[in-house]
Automatic annotation (TrEMBL):
This is Flagellar motor switch protein FliN. Belongs to the FliN/MopA/SpaO family. Transmembrane segments: none annotated. Gene3D superfamilies: SpoA-like. The lineage of its organism: Bacteria, Pseudomonadati, Pseudomonadota, Alphaproteobacteria, Hyphomicrobiales.
């Protein structure tokens, strides 16, 4: 059996290093090279950019062998209890926490009632 270490496949000293940032010949259309927003963009355009929102109910860890044995009806215990707040994640960052609720207009659907909006410094620490 070999002693393969997946974290040691890069040349010595290369682990954790990032490539240098790329420089582009010209700014993308609508953006000026000197500023964050050029004349071609309006706030309305930015407000229509889609973002991914995820609600994390909890997580679990298990060995691959246990994962492969899962089948219909299997229960996976999560690391959160009923009543604990869930995380609201936007594009990979925690932005709020809330409680899971049943929607009044459609009881077959769940929703989130926000209880806390997380500031940027707190969100950075939760990543």
């Amino acid at each position: 059996m070999s002693n393969f270490d997946p974290l040691n496949v890069l040349p010595e000293g290369a682990a954790g290093e990032l490539p240098p940032p790329q420089k582009f010949a010209k700014a993308p259309p609508g953006l000026s090279a000197g500023g964050p927003i050029g004349e071609g963009l309006s706030l309305d355009t930015i407000m229509r950019i889609p973002v991914t929102v995820k609600i994390v109910l909890g997580s679990a860890s298990m060995p691959v062998a246990a994962l492969l044995k899962l089948g219909r009806g299997a229960l996976i215990p999560l690391d959160r209890k009923i009543g604990e707040p869930v995380d609201v994640i936007v594009n990979g960052r925690v932005v709020a926490r809330g409680e899971v609720v049943v929607m009044d207009e459609d009881p077959s659907r769940l929703g989130i009632s926000l209880t806390e909006v997380v500031g940027p410094s707190v969100a950075e620490n939760l990543r």
